[in-house]
Amino acid sequence: MERLQHEEFTSIVFFTGAGMSAESGVPTYRGKGGIWKDYDYEEYACQDAFERDPDKVLEFHRIRRRSVLLCQPHEGHRVIASIPEAGIVTQNIDGMHQRAGSEEVIELHGSLWRLRCPECGFRKEDFGEVYEKKCSECGGRLRPDIIWFGDMLDPLVMQNASTLIKNCDLFISIGTSGTVWPAAGYPDLAKRSGAYCIEINPEPSGATAYDRVIEGSAGEVLPKLFH
Ligand code: OAD
User: How much is the pTM?
Assistant: First the structure.
């Protein structure tokens, strides 16, 4: 595979989805073995479910956290971390980019490793075996700081992501089916803003924004493309 002359670009954005972590062993959401095939999001990933049965929802996320901790970042994550000047916009909540050494990561859909209080807006990191339940500021019920179905994305996070994407000249999408909005619109946004757009995916999304589609996995393609 031809190495990408990425030094010729002044502003790179990596845009990642669940497929980025697939080779680490973290399941994707859709397709074979996808999380939403085994778990009904209406029971595990929405505010209504949390209000009905918070312990059930927290247990689902606790199990996810434990399984993510058994996985390790792969070479593809490390390639991205080796270009610190590049921006990272991820839909993933697993923290894998950070574990590979990336410091600045825009997490569109929140994080498995953060809690927030819906009452007072307090947020805190949480890496414990069991989720902390009570807000230390107001006594409200803490919930995982994750965008569940029906939740609004954080406007500031969205603004930061779109500013980065509008100003990039190389946009590399990795491992996303492009089905969840607003993230699904980011390849078009990059294209409209004049960026050269690449997709890396063993089953390409079919989005028309891409100038180059590389049919392959994140862990295999990224090292070849950049080293
Ligand atoms: P999906 O599960 O929808 O799509 C995963 C994509 O990764 C598919 O296009 C696969 O072909 C691709 N893929 C699989 N293995 C890969 C590999 N080794 N290398 C590269 N690509 C690979 O995941 P997302 O698009 O991330 O939201 O899903 C978007 C959102 O939907 C998630 O953030 C989540 C979910 O509901 C929330 O939880 C809010």
Answer: 0.97
